[in-house]
Structure formats: C-alpha cells, structure tokens
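User: Small ask, check this?
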Amino acid sequence: VQVGGTENESGGIFQFNPSSFNATNGSVITFEFSGNPGNHRYIRALSNPCQPLSGGFDSGWVLIPTGGVSPSPLWNLTVTDDSHPIYFFCKQLIPSPHCAAGMVGTINAPSSGTGSLNDFLNNAKQTTDSGVSGSPLQGIGALVGQGASASADPGPLPSGVTLFGTPGATAVSAASSSTGAAAST
C-alpha cells in the first residue's frame, strides 16, 4: 500500500493506494512510505474517523524529504482478525489534517453502505472537532493492535528520512541508524 503520493498524481499527497482491500488472517500488508514530500503516520481508527482507536496500532511518523528516497521505508502489518473491518487514517496535521483531507483506508470493509470506505471517507471529511483543540489525538500507539500487528517500526531509513513518534523509538533518522532499525536517540 502506497502511503502518500506526489502533488501531481491522481489523488495528490493525501492518499493510501489502494485505499480499500481485503486480506485474510496471516496476510502481511506492506505499507510503503513513498509520498514526496511526505510526513505520514498510519494508525488504526474505527467509528470516529481521525481519532485513534484505543488498543489500535500505530506506525509512527515517517518524514520523506522533497525529492524522495530510495528505497522507500516499509512497514509490515499482519492481519490477525479478518472477521471485522480495519479502519485506518493518517493523523499528520501539517499542512492541514490529512485525515480530514481524505487520507483514510480500510481492510475487509463492506463494499457499500455503512462501514464502507466511502462511508468512512465521508465521515472523515466532515470531522471538525477531533478532541484536542480541533486536532486528532497525537499520542503514540502500539505495534500490536486490534485486528492486526506489526513486529517492528518502519524501515530501512535511507539518508534524509526521519522516523519519530513510533512505539519503538522517540526519534530516529537515517544518520543515527545505520541499520535502519528503530533505536532511541
């Protein structure tokens, strides 16, 4: 799943591509932080778009510099409960809240009606108060959450990429992590 895009591509910078798909238990979904420039965070939500789900998962922020990087940082998420939909969004606020701009996605959601991607997207675009002075909650979530889990923070981190607000580290940059693994700095 591509996280973010470029200003010139269809969907712009605020997108997950694909934004809705199905996956069975044990499926590993790879999120590629390739938006250029981009500072995105993948997090679990449910009925309140743009609000993290208690017990949900969180990739942390991955800042991609202007001009992009190669290789793009990846984050693998394993589906552990395919009996319920998984709703996710980007909780970055700059230059404007990405979730309210439509940067949301679903795994195993109905194709139409209540709970579908379109339902979730429309609710996200109507978000005006996300609980903290009109902004989504910005706490750090966990790698393991309801319905899915990850075993590591995003990586590898090529030169110029910064990772922060992750469950496994407070701030990591490519300069401080030669292996690309998250470590506190």
In short: Residues 129-136, 170-185 have pLDDT under 50 and may be disordered. The longest helix spans residues 117-125. DSSP finds one helix and 13 strands in the chain. The CA atoms of residues 62 and 103 lie 15 Å apart.
